[in-house]
Structures are given as C-alpha cells and as structure tokens.
C-alpha cells in the first residue's frame, strides 16, 4: 500500500534529519489517519484509491500555498513547498492524457455525460481528473 511506503520514507527522512520531507510525510500520515478514523466509524476500510485522493488534494493545497508565497516574494518558502510537492508526486499513478481519455470515450457505446462520468469514476478513479474527462467529452 502507498501508506506503507510513505511511513517507510518518513523513517528514512527522520534518520537523515530531512525536515522538509518529514513535514510533508507527517501531513500525509495525519490526513490518512483522520480519514481512517472516519471510515472505521462508518464500518469501511480505506485503501490506495483514497490515499491517492489525499495526495492529490495535498498537491493542490501545496500548489496554492506556493503561489501565495510567490505573490509575497518569499522564494525560500516557495522552493520548500515545491520540493515537498515533488516528494509526494511520485506516489501518484500516471494520469491519463487527453488523447487516452478521448480514445476511451470514443470506444464507449453510451456517450451521455452521466454515463461517461460514471464509467471513468468506476474504472479510472485516481488516474484522471474528472474535469479533464468532462472537457474532452464536451469537445467530442
């Protein structure tokens, strides 16, 4: 599981005294634990798909944070945030390109918006941005 690799890398960062990596791994682990508690309360388990969503959300937050540091002219913090972002991006599965999405949509029998969106959410969850799927579908 992805969380196991993150925990392992967190220990390595701790031993190497890499505070930048440690802080982002700690953030991911605490978000994972919070979501695990919520899921257990509902009698559910979480896995890699949910961890990918946590990482994607964290990357979006880091991107916004880096932009804000850039606006105020704090290059050091911006670089730290971008370094953290690059550390966790390697845990994401490769995302489908617009061309791949287009080919998949063209191969579907039912090309209605709800049907296509449901298909991608079921079969490619975490491997594509749903907004990109919607944009490609509108262009067909």
Percent in strands: under 5%
Shape: globular
* Uncertain stretches of 5 or more adjacent residues: none
Query: How much helix, percentage-wise, in residues?
Result: over 70%
Please give a structural write-up.
Helix 1 runs antiparallel to helix 2, helix 2 crosses helix 4 (75-89) and helix 3 packs antiparallel against helix 4 (75-89). The radius of gyration is 18 Å and the shape is globular. Helices cover 76% and strands 0% of the residues. The mean pLDDT is 92. The chain has helices spanning 2-15, 19-41, 48-71, 75-89, 98-106, 113-123, 130-139. With 140 residues, it is mainly alpha-helical.
Please sum up the structure shown.
The chain is an all-alpha fold and 140 residues long.
Features:
140 residues; mainly alpha; 76% helix
Which SSEs are present, and which pair or pack?
Elements lengths: L1 H14 L3 H23 L6 H24 L3 H15 L8 H9 L6 H11 L6 H10 L1
């Amino acid at each position: 599981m992805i969380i196991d690799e993150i925990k392992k890398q967190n220990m390595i960062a701790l031993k190497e005294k890499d505070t930048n990596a440690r802080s982002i791994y700690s953030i991911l682990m605490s978000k994972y634990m919070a979501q695990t508690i919520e899921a257990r309360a509902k009698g559910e388990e979480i896995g890699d798909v949910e961890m990918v969503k946590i990482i994607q959300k964290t990357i979006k937050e880091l991107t916004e944070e880096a932009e804000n540091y850039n606006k105020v002219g704090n290059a050091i913090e911006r670089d730290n945030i971008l370094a953290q972002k690059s550390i966790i991006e390697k845990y994401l599965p490769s995302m489908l390109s617009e061309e791949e999405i287009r080919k998949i949509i063209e191969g579907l029998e039912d090309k209605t918006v709800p049907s296509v969106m449901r298909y991608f959410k079921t079969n490619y969850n975490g491997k594509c941005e749903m907004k990109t799927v919607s944009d490609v579908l509108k262009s067909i």
